[in-house]
Amino acid sequence: MEQFNIAIDGPASAGKSTIAKQVAKELGLTYLDTGAMYRALTYMALVHKLNLEDETALLNLLADTEISFPSNQGMQHVFINKMEVTEVIRSKEVTQNVSLVSSHKNVRKKMVSRQQKIAQQGGIVMDGRDIGTVVLPNAALKIYLVASAEERALRRYRESIEKGMQVSLEELTADMIARDNYDMNREASPLKKAEDAIEIDSTNLSINQVVEMILDYAKNYQ
Ligand code: C5P
Predict the structure, then answer these.
(1) Which protein residue has the closest C-alpha to ligand 1 atom 12?
(2) What residue numbers does the annotated binding site for ATP cover?
(3) Superfamily per CATH, domain 6-217
(4) Strand 141-146 to 198-201 pairing
(5) In terms of Cα–Cα distance, which of 149, 162, 153, 148 is closest to 204?
(6) How much is the mean pLDDT over the chain?
(7) Per residue in 186-215, pLDDT tens?
(8) Which DSSP category does 48 fall into?
């Protein structure tokens, strides 16, 4: 039987990962945060002080970088080789550089092939920017999750404050819009809605409402 996969794409801070995680839990599927993979590579590239324009250097680094997602008591952790990087890959420096790293065509090729390999192991909910268009073009259900830039920035701001981070809403908004523009306008698999994706605008919806909507759609496809 064909595996049941769900692709969730959309701009930054639209709530993709929180929602994808809950949907996966409800349906007993595996969850994969593909953004964390690009963040992990970016983190390593910064540690090694690589020139982020240098695709060959990034590819060599990626070849030595095993990225894994061990789950512990329902919490998903991110590891590079044997080092936990769950928190550090969310730093401002990584966030400001990840779009450049992920714009390289051959870096994407390698990441996509890793992601497709993980998907082969069973039904999966994957979130990212090119899941419905490139990684899982045959996914049973494709969601394109959006929300207004103001709402997305506010959500990220509240999250950061809760974590005790010092951030400014203006800076956060500007960084987020710049990252979306970069992701939407790059040459290699830019962020865009797959033709057969269902668009959900979560601006005025709670996480649970969006999860319920996706579970409802999933019923029609299973
Ligand atoms: O999802 P998250 O915001 O953590 O993603 C970080 C960055 O990784 C995105 O801004 C984008 O540049 C890149 N990305 C990508 N393709 C994916 C997932 C993330 O290019 N499938």
Answers:
(1) 99
(2) 10-18
(3) P-loop containing nucleotide triphosphate hydrolases (3.40.50.300)
(4) parallel
(5) 148
(6) 94
(7) 999 999 999 999 999 999 999 999 999 999
(8) T
